[in-house]
Each structure stands twice: as C-alpha cells, then as structure tokens.
Automatic annotation (TrEMBL), chain A:
Any GO BP annotation: late endosome to vacuole transport via multivesicular body sorting pathway
Name used for this protein in its record: Leptin receptor gene-related protein
Residues passing through the membrane, by range: 6-23, 30-48, 68-88, 100-120
Swiss-Prot/TrEMBL keywords: Endosome, Golgi apparatus, Membrane, Transmembrane, Transmembrane helix
UniProtKB/TrEMBL annotation, chain B:
Transmembrane segments annotated in the record for this chain: 29-51, 57-77, 98-119, 131-150
Family: Belongs to the UPF0220 family.
Higher taxonomy: Eukaryota, Metazoa, Chordata, Craniata, Vertebrata
An annotated GO cellular component: membrane
Record protein name field: Transmembrane protein 50A
Source organism of the structure: Oryzias latipes (Japanese rice fish)
Compartments where found: Membrane
Alphabetically ordered keywords of this record: Membrane, Transmembrane, Transmembrane helix
Membrane topology: Multi-pass membrane protein
Coiled-coil regions listed: none
Amino acid sequence: MAGIKALVGLSFSGAIGLTFLLLGCALEQYGVYWPLFVLIFYVLSPIPTFISRRLSDSTESSSACRELAYFITTGIVVSAFGLPIILARKSTIQWGACGLVMTGNAVIFLTILGFFVVFGSGDDFSWEQW
Amino acid sequence: MSGFLDGIRCGDCDCNVDWGERRNTIASIAAGVLFFTGWWIIIDAAVMYPLEEDFHRAYHTCGVIATVAFLMINAVSNGQVRGDSYSEGCMGQTGARVWLFIGFMLAFGSLIASMWILFGGFVVPGKPHTYPGIAIFFQNAFIFFGGLVFKFGRTEDLWQ
C-alpha cells in the first residue's frame, strides 16, 4: 500500500514537470516546440544506473561501474539544462520558455531520483517489489 | 495510515552513511558536472559564432584531445599503477604507468594549448570577438579539472 502512495505522488510530480515543459513550448507568447528535445535526456537519464545495477550486485556499496554510471547520468542532467540555455542564447526560444523548461527539468529529475530512492534500493532489483 | 511511510527509505539507508562512503559518489557527480559543463561551453561558442573567421573549427581539436586524455587517465586504476591489484591487466604495471604518463601529458598539453589558442589566436591578433577563445580555455580547464576530480577524488578503498 505504501508503494502505491509513493507511486501516485511520483507520477503527480512527473506530470507537473512535463506540464512545465509543455508550457514552455505551447504558451501563446512562445509557440515553438524545440524544447521538447530535452525529452531525450529524460529518457536516457536512468539508463546508466540501470545498467550498472544489472552488471553488479545491487548490495555493493561502491564500485567503479556504479561511479561511471553516476558520472554519465550527471552528464545527461547537465545536458538537459544546457540545451535550453543555448537555444535561448541563440534566440531560438525565449528566455521565459527557457526558465519554464529548466523548472520542468528540475522537477522531472527529482521525480526520477525519487523513483530510485523509493523503488530501486531493494535487495534484489526486480520489478515485482510492489 | 499506520504504515504509509514504511516504503520511503531515505531516512534509514543513505542519510546515515558517513562522509567517507559518500565521497566516491560526490566526486563522480562533481567530475561529471565539470566535464560536461566544459563541453556545453564549447557547444555554446560554436553555435553563437558559426563563421570560420570568428571561430576556427580546427580549435576543437584541443577539447577532443583533452577528452581522450580524460579517458586515458581514468581507464587505469591507482591499484594497477602501484602494482597491488589482483589482475595484471593487459600491459602490466609498467604498461599502466606508461599509459597514465601519456594520459597526463596529453591533459597538460591540451590545457597549455588552450591558453596558447586564447592568447595567440584571439587576444594578440586583436580579434573582435574573443569569446570563442575564452570558451576554448574554459572548456579545457573544466575537462582537465573534471579529470583530476574523477581520478583523485575517489578512493579505491571502497571498492571490493
């Protein structure tokens, strides 16, 4: 039952994050949809951590593989913030849209982190936890 | 309602671990921020100055060599260089030392080259836009320090 509440809370915050992203594209004063490219970074961001957990025991406290996964994940997160800034500097999107997209980024990445904290650190990393 | 917080684990696993065990994670994240910020700085400069006379495309070589150096430095562990790891690796201890030596030489070389590009290519000739030169310098500085943090900020004592 606790798993369901956390799941609902995390999907709510995920929806809020995506709402910020879409507001940055679809509001009348903005109107361009280039910021949707950050969706690629959202999808890519959990993958290195999944791979490193699959390749080693999930009970290991630290390993080179896990740290490499954190390094690459940080890179993906930085890229999701960097792309809107460059689009705004080049005036492809407006700075207000950039701000909304970055807010959406922050919420989505916190949601993904929340998934890992709540659901990911079980003894065997399986999908049947709840 | 009585058990609804049981599924949330942040109170009893990670937050009570002391600084020593988190060190590797924090070093990896800091190195990632530095390295990728460096690359996004140069992407920004390349996007803002698309003309060849403002930003000579050959200057990208510096950042590429710095990235290769980063990968070389972090490909060998400190244990292999000291000779006290269990597996020899394909080149042995001497090979690991030579690899690390070449990696550091490329890293220092690209940092020096970026300063040379900034001053010799942008400041001294008096180019109207010096931002690309500054971006090249900061890209290489960030990649260099990201490599240092990733190499020396982590301790191998935590590995099994």
